[in-house]
Design a protein that fits this description.
Helices cover about 40% and strands about 20% of the residues. It is an alpha/beta fold and about 280 residues long. The protein has one domain: PAC-like subunit (Rossmann fold, 3-Layer(aba) Sandwich), CATH 3.40.50.10900. β3 and β4 form a beta hairpin. α1 packs across α5 and α6 crosses α7. The protein starts with 13 loop residues before the first strand and ends with a helix. It comes from Nocardioides guangzhouensis. This is PAC2 family protein.
Length: about 280
């Protein structure tokens, strides 16, 4: 079992979880948790015992020197943190770790038991996959939910995917088994720039969380990082005619298959986020 340090008294907390590995193309999903940990000043309250779930020959411990000059080993694992965003009337539980190598059902059961101990009301899992999408267009984000009312409120579609799944899919199924409402968002990362990071995809996932939580998340340098990332990929594409042709083909496919009304809804949501953020910043 996961021991929670100084069990905090949380208000209707939402759980947001992401795991490095197969579910985390270009580190886009785990990048969201890293960003939220920073901007919401989250504090770690629990850690999964890595001995039970990780193969150290696959995910090796890392040795480094700390600020005092001491050599320390950091073991692979999963951490639980809590945050109290200033503009939100509920607390947040953040889960960030590696996809385990073994005992997935026990892993999920222990995480959900910890979330229940902390009073978790809703689980949001984040993932990222490689897809045939152009880097020059908005990053597509798909979402699913386990509860019909969540599907209706968030305008989501039930997933029709059939095939191999990762810890995100298993964790969401575990939520169903214990009647914990769950939402899952997946960002589509251009497969021809799969190396991390992909701040544009991280930003797209954050936008979905803002809609879900009805709060503006401080974005810091992420918007500029996303623009710099896109400019960098533009330069790489210009240096290779085959890649440039491929990107143009993806753009044409994307532009001709996207429904105008869907694009209009996306623009409207983005404008609403912009207005909320201006209000949060105290601008007129």
């Amino acid at each position: 079992m996961i021991e929670i340090d100084d069990l905090p008294d949380l208000v209707d907390p939402v759980v947001i979880a992401a795991f490095e590995g197969w579910n985390d193309a270009a580190d886009a999903a785990s990048g969201v948790i890293d960003h939220l940990m920073d901007v919401w000043s989250a504090r770690i309250v629990g850690t999964v015992d890595p001995e039970e779930f990780y193969d150290y020959q696959v995910n090796r411990p890392v040795v480094a020197t700390d600020e005092r000059g001491h050599r320390r080993i950091t073991w692979p694992g999963t951490q639980i943190a809590v945050a109290s965003p200033p503009d939100l009337d509920r607390d947040i539980i953040l889960i960030r770790g590696l996809e385990p190598n073994m005992r997935w059902r026990q892993f999920c059961a222990e995480l959900l038991a910890a979330c229940d101990e902390l009073g978790g009301q809703l689980v949001v899992t984040l993932g990222a996959l490689l897809a045939d999408t152009p880097h020059t267009r908005p990053i597509p984000v798909t979402g699913t939910a386990t509860e019909p009312e969540l599907v209706d409120r968030l305008k989501l579609e039930q997933s029709t995917y059939e095939g191999p799944t990762g810890i995100v899919g298993v964790f969401q199924d575990a939520c169903v088994q214990v009647d914990m409402p769950a939402v899952s968002y997946w960002a589509a990362v251009p497969h021809y720039v799969a190396q991390p990071p992909c701040p544009k995809a991280t930003l797209a996932l954050l936008g979905q969380l803002e809609d879900l939580l009805e709060v503006s998340v401080p974005l810091g340098d992420l918007p500029e990082d996303a623009r710099a990332w896109e400019r960098g990929v533009d330069e790489l594409a210009q240096e290779d005619e085959d890649i440039a042709d491929y990107v143009r083909a993806l753009e044409e496919t994307r532009d001709t298959t996207d429904l105008p009304e869907a694009s209009g809804e996306a623009i409207a949501r983005e404008f609403e986020r912009y207005l909320k953020r201006r209000g949060t910043d105290g601008q007129s």
